[in-house]
Amino acid sequence: MKYSVFHVEGGLGKNIAATAVARCIKNNYPDRDLIVVCSYPEVFLHNPIVEKVYTLGNTPYFYKDYIKDKDTYLFKHEPYFTNDHIQKKKSLIENWCSLYNIAYNNEKPELFIPKRISDFVKLKYYRQKPIMLIQSNGGILKGQTYNYAWTRDMPTDLVEKIVLRFSQNYHIMQVCRNEFNVLKGFPIEPIFDKMSNLELLSLLLLSKKRLLIDSCLQHAAMALNLPSTVLWIGTSPKLFGYDLHDNIIANPPKNEPKLINSYLFDYNFEGILHESPYMEGEDLFSVENIINSLI
């Protein structure tokens, strides 16, 4: 047997983006069984091009089965710490494939959600009005100090205006980090239930409209071919976004940020508060532009 072993670290969104790299590896080496070792195995578990999936740190007999005296190609590099990524020259997926010196033909993320899971979510979260799904906050990072990261999370005052504009015609669901990020006193249903990741991603399939940030749901929306409005603040759609979406980039800050804590990247992904050059939500985005995108 011949194998390709693809090693993926990082968050849920990065693992979803990595499905495009997995497809690229398989396209370049179709005669090799694709073995994935990753931090979110459910993303790859039902993918027909993947022979087996292992969770990072749980790889029993892996060396014996796939490495020792085996015909195996290993794909294990970190694309974030490359010149093309740091200098914002290539998208994450294209840069990842370049690291492996494999031909990239615009492969996109893909998700395979079992119908039993999507049907369960549809039954549980069905609402009479069409659903507008808003992801206002991304998943919390290990060791992160604050519940709000200004570099990618939606400012509360901006979310309030969007909710008031669309609540008559849509049932609005807010996917957020935890109860501390819930928009209180507004016609919105917060979603921070304990659920599997595939159940969370299945919420996209219920939605008529989607307002997202640079987090797992915008990658999943691409994988499910669901055009969405995506807001970008401290990260770039050139690196992490997709042409399928309406990508709205934050206004340039009025004052030059000092970036005293920045090293290889302009903004710390955690969103250190004293680095924020914005005072309020409307400094970042035109509410009218977002509304027009969602109409």
Key traits:
single chain; 295 residues; alpha/beta; Rossmann fold; 6-stranded parallel β-sheet; 4-stranded parallel β-sheet; 11 helices; 10 strands; globular
In short:
The chain contains eleven helices and ten strands. The protein is an alpha/beta fold and 295 residues long. Helix 1 packs across helix 4 and helix 1 packs parallel to helix 8.
Textual characterization of the structure:
The protein is α/β, with parallel strands linked by helices. The protein folds into two domains: 2-99, 3-Layer(aba) Sandwich (Rossmann fold); 116-294, Glycogen Phosphorylase B (Rossmann fold, 3-Layer(aba) Sandwich). The protein has helices spanning 12-28, 62-67, 83-86, 92-99, 115-125, 156-166, 197-206, 216-223, 237-240, 281-284, 287-294, and strands at residues 2-8, 33-38, 50-55, 71-75, 131-135, 171-175, 189-191, 207-213, 229-232, 246-249. Helix 1 (12-28) packs across helix 4 (92-99).
